[in-house]
Write a structure and sequence with these properties.
cell membrane; transmembrane; mainly alpha; elongated; DUF350 domain-containing protein
């Protein structure tokens, strides 16, 4: 009887571990995609601006973009209800949608508010416009995440 209980438990743990691995890999890929979307909006390489130039505006915009994608991925996983294949597809679709919405938000921010992302990351000191855009990123991610749920 103990062996019979151990087999289903082992299978459940194995499936659970594989599901965690699959969601983690997909989440990391979406985070990388989100990073590169912010990178496209900035002059030069975003990683150089953060690592070598130590630009706080670039770091804040990248961090807020990644936070937003993370919210969307977490909400997508939460709403999947345990169905792995459907959950991965939903996470991929909503994660990419959130990244596109963020990119559009950055473009609209530039046009409507008149604050250029490119100009923000050229400034060596933290700028109020970068804080505003960072909050916009997180709010877009939160709205998208709640829409998923």
């Amino acid at each position: 009887m103990t062996i019979a209980l151990a087999a289903p438990l082992g299978e459940a743990l194995g499936r659970g571990a594989l599901a965690i691995l699959a969601y983690a890999v997909l989440g990391v890929l979406l985070l990388i995609a989100g990073f590169y979307v912010v990178d496209l909006a900035t002059p030069g390489r975003l990683s150089k601006l953060i690592q070598q130039d130590r630009n706080p505006n670039a770091a804040l915009l990248a961090a807020s973009g990644l936070t937003a994608v993370g919210l969307i991925v977490a909400a997508s996983i939460w709403s999947s209800g345990g169905a792995l294949q459907e959950g991965l597809l939903v996470t991929l679709a909503f994660g990419l949608t959130g990244i596109v919405v963020q990119a559009l938000g950055m473009l609209l921010f530039d046009r409507v508010a008149g604050i250029s992302v490119r100009d923000l990351v050229r400034e060596p000191a933290l700028q109020p416009g970068a804080v505003l855009l960072a909050v916009t990123h997180v709010v877009i991610g939160l709205i998208t995440a709640v829409a998923v749920i």
